[in-house]
Amino acid sequence: MEIGFLGLGIMGKAMSMNLIKKGFKVTVWNRTLSRCDELVEMGASVGETPAAVVKKCKITIAMVSDPAAALSVVFDKDGVLEEISSGKGYVDMSTVDPETSSKISEAITSKGGSFVEAPVSGSKQPAEAALLVILAAGDKALYEEAIPAFNAMGKKSFYLGPIGNGARMKLVVNMIMGSMMNAFSEGIVLADRSGLNPSDLLDVLDLGAIATPMFKGKGPNMIKSNFSPAFPLKHQQKDMRLALALGDENAVSMPIAAAANEAFKKARSMGLGDLDFSAVHEVVKQHKD
């Protein structure tokens, strides 16, 4: 089966590489076409437009940055919608809001195509190691057809029902993650300013009930102020904003998430948006009142 792949950012590049490594024929597209070069060296073909990729492939996957990009790649000139048709499937693995997923789904199915939303839990390292958790919803037959591709990119796939549920699950997960990162940042700074060794804090946390891979993986670099992006802060803040909107829609009070969102917004105003989301640590460090 030939798989199309749209979007070769931090996540998409690693995911498409894993498809190639697992033996899939892959045709790639990226807005900046030079980003396709490394994939071509591995054996991928290049489509000059999203429409060209869809025309060539039975299943096309997209992994782009935000709702605006997800809509653009479908609806713009030379977009997915121009070539989607009966017998072709489109899988959007971007993190977007349920409304965006529904809009894309309606457009794809109106042309006879099938659609699955499949956002992922995991950032750069899990993407490279094919350890993503895939949160899928939509056309069940397309989901089942795409499972071999999902297995090449991730360690577990969930089918969550109708369109919108994948997006909702991803926003809930990232809301929790962003809130935890803020509390973790405050803990590291509090330990340091209380005269404790922050590295000792990491060791204590790793042995207790609140041990998490995120604390273990991010903590050492945070102590060193190393925020090389695995998951850019601007995307985390976008997800917090979308999660808060989902909370409003469902009348859920979310004061902790709201406070965390404000910290991420402050970090963006400090010019940290392209760094890893753990750079919210700098917001806590700069507050000395």
Protein model, in words:
With about 290 residues, the chain is an alpha/beta fold. The protein folds into 2 domains: about 1-160, Rossmann fold, CATH 3.40.50; about 170-285, N-(1-d-carboxylethyl)-l-norvaline Dehydrogenase, domain 2 (Orthogonal Bundle). Helix content is about 55%, strand content about 15%. The protein has 13 helices and 9 strands. Strands 1, 2, 3, 4, 5, 6, 7, 8 and 9 form a 9-stranded mixed sheet that branches. Helix 1 links the parallel strand 1 (about 1-5) and strand 2 (about 25-30). Helix 8 packs across helix 11 (about 235-250), helix 9 (about 200-205) runs antiparallel to helix 10 (about 215-225) and helix 11 (about 235-250) runs antiparallel to helix 12. The longest helix is centred in the middle third of the chain and has 29 residues, at about 165-195. It starts with a strand and ends with a helix.
